[in-house]
Amino acid sequence: VIRKNVREIQLSIRKISEKASEKEDCVRLDIGQPSFDTPQHVKEAARNFLDEKQGYTSTTGIQKLREKIAEEESMKSGVDVRPEEVMVTTGGMEAIFALFSSRLDEDDTLLVNDPSWGPYRLISAVNGNGVEQTQYFHNGELTEDVKEKAEKADMIAINSPSNPEGRVLSRDESRAIAELAEDKNCFLMTDEVYWRLTFDEEHQSPAAFNDNSALIGSVSKNHAMTGWRIGWIVDDSENIKEYAKVSRAMTAAPNKIGQLAAFEALDNSFHVGKMRDEYRKRRDYVVEQMKELGWGFTDPEGAIYAFPEVGKDSWEFAMEMIDEGVAVVPGEPFGSESDRSVRIAYGAAEMEELEKGFERLKKAV
Ligand SMILES: Cc1ncc(COP(=O)(O)O)c(C=O)c1O
Asked: Is the four-CA dihedral 192, 195, 200, 204 of positive or negative sign?
């Protein structure tokens, strides 16, 4: 018998990608991954690394990568991170799974922002923990609802820059959410997989203001390496040993060649600036277009997404737009107030494609 938790999972967004892949000449703004391929120097390094023996690595990852990640995370958060406080995982996804399954029992509750990335709920469903969702901020201040819901929560998830809105927390907001978690005795998970992709202000890690927290990282988006499946989790070394038990049960270790490639990407990351500049151009274009369309939206300040309100049921809109030759993701699965919004992954399409997509949107709307 399939467990009820699993049976009831609806991978609803698949309907969009299935329909879009059947449509000829469809501009794909639905896929949450960079249009860029992995940088050449990373591929080149990986080719050379292939000459090494490709055996298992330690569950927590190869030492030189853990050292490199510790260096980057220390620089980013301003908190001294040591290599034994890092576990390399099979994407940020496994890091989040390891964290939830190590910390959240069936009667425990994870608090997520409204809207937020669907897999926090997907992973919770598989793990069996409860989820509450509410908007964390309004006009730069914590909402009354998040303060109330945090009372009963066991873990608070924060994600900046965010998927789907592209929202970047200010320093004050980062501090506020970190302090709320501390006040309410909640563990804080800070998902920073897009941290290098901010266009206006620098990323500020909430982990800098909270010791009882774990940080999630990944090379997927920042380095255009989604297919390599390398991410990590940062926490105290004692906690890392516990998370490693889950990782041991799931994958034994992340793939070695991916870890070696990730090392090169972090060690030699000049490519990030070029990609960020290009995303910024696309962001500026998308903002201008969304204004012309009269759509309301939260300012996209980072990551690779915009999340406008389109004034229509999000599923209907997304399905109709595929017929017009442009695919976006319905907002409904992201949150309770998002059923008239759609996610536009402008990072997934080159400028020319993006322009073609918006021409079609404008014609159809
Ligand atoms: C907010 C967020 N966190 C984590 C991930 C996980 O990425 P990966 O498993 O590719 O590292 C994603 C990917 O879409 C994401 O959008």
From this structure: positive
**Nearest atom (ligand 1) to Cα of 95:** 9
Ligand 1 binding pocket (C-beta < 6 A) is 32, 91-93, 117, 159, 163, 191, 193, 218, 220, 226, 231
pLDDT tens-digit readout, 120-134 = 999 999 999 999 999
Cis before 254? omega within 30: no
pTM of the complete model: 0.97
SS3 labels along the chain: CCCHHHHCCCCCCHHHHHHHHHCCCCEECCCCCCCCCCCHHHHHHHHHHCCCCCCCCCCCCCHHHHHHHHHHHHHHHCCCCCHHHEEEECHHHHHHHHHHHHHCCCCCEEEEECCCCCHHHHHHHHHCCEEEEECCEECCEECHHHHHHHHHCCEEEEECCCCCCCCCCCHHHHHHHHHHHHHCCCEEEEECCCCCCECCCCCCCHHHHCCCEEEEEECCCCCCCHHHCCEEEECCHHHHHHHHHHHHHHCCCCCHHHHHHHHHHHHCCCHHHHHHHHHHHHHHHHHHHHHHCCCECCCCCECCCECCECCCCHHHHHHHHHHHCEECEECHHHCCCCCCEEEECHHHCCHHHHHHHHHHHHHHC
Q: How far is the CA of 362 from the centre of ligand 1 (A)?
A: 30
Q: Model confidence over 92-109: pLDDT tens digits?
A: 999 999 999 999 999 999
| Residue from 218, 226, 233 to probe ligand 1 pocket by mutation (most atoms less than 8 Å from CB) | 218
Report whether pLDDT(167) > 90: yes
Distance 193 CA to ligand 1 centre (A): 6
342-357 residues labelled b (16+ CB within 10 A) or e (exposed): bbbbbbbbeeebbebb
What is the number of the ligand 1 atom nearest to the C-alpha of 93? 9
